[in-house]
Amino acid sequence: MICPTCLHDNVPGAEECSNCSGDLTQLDRPTASNKVERSLMEDPVAVLQPRQPLTLQPIATVAEAMRTMLAQDVGALLVVDGTGKLVGIFSERDLLTKVAGIHSDYADRPLADFMTAEPETLNPEDTLAFALHKMDVGGYRHMPLLQEGRPTGVISVRDIMRHITRLCRE
Q1: Averaged pLDDT score across all residues of the chain
Q2: Could you report the per-residue pLDDT of 101-143, keeping only the tens digit for each?
Q3: I need a labelling partner for 8 at 20 to 30 A (CA). Which of 31, 57, 112, 160 fits?
Q4: Where are the beta strands (DSSP E) in 36-92?
């Protein structure tokens, strides 16, 4: 990495020039080379126009959750307490890994028994790249959006893929 001040050739990734101690951090930042990369790096999650969250309380039954998910064609429901604060998420993955084939009497049991408590969340100002990274590292397909501890939306990997596809068509 060439220092713009003294033209010294530094080790790639160096934060300061080994010759003049000049700051090199700006030179190592990724830059967008097309509109997809620009959108991922700069656009907030809010650009996806997240759908309103579908919520149930922890005492709702698994049967209620399944009916709601099927009727609304969603892969995850947010679980909120009486004040509307997020306490968990119940997803298709929870249904498959914690219910199906394990419990025969699940239908009337509360979501609290099977939900993922204290899920990872995003806020609407987080960038798409940050959201994708968080989803990838955690293996999540759905992420709740929160403002002041209350859910304002849900995004999915599918929402991000639709956004990228739209950008590619333009």
Answers
A1: 92
A2: 787 788 899 999 999 999 999 999 999 999 999 999 999 999 9
A3: 31
A4: 55-56, 76-80, 86-91
154, burial (CB in 10 Å: exposed 0-12, middle 13-18, buried 19+):
buried
Give the count of beta carbons closer than 10 Å to the beta carbon of residue 12: 9
pLDDT in tens, 148-162: 888 999 999 999 999
Q: Give me the DSSP letters along the chain.
A: -B-TTT--BPPTT-SB-TTT--B-GGGGS----SHHHHHHHH-BGGGG-PBPPPEE-TTSBHHHHHHHHHHHT-SEEEEE-TTS-EEEEEEHHHIIIIITTT-TT-TTSBGGGTSEES---B-TTSBHHHHHHHHHHHT-SEEEEEETTEEEEEEEHHHHHHHHHHHHH-
CA 10 to chain centre: 37
CB 134 within 8 A of CB 119: no
Sign, CA dihedral 115-118-122-124, equals: positive
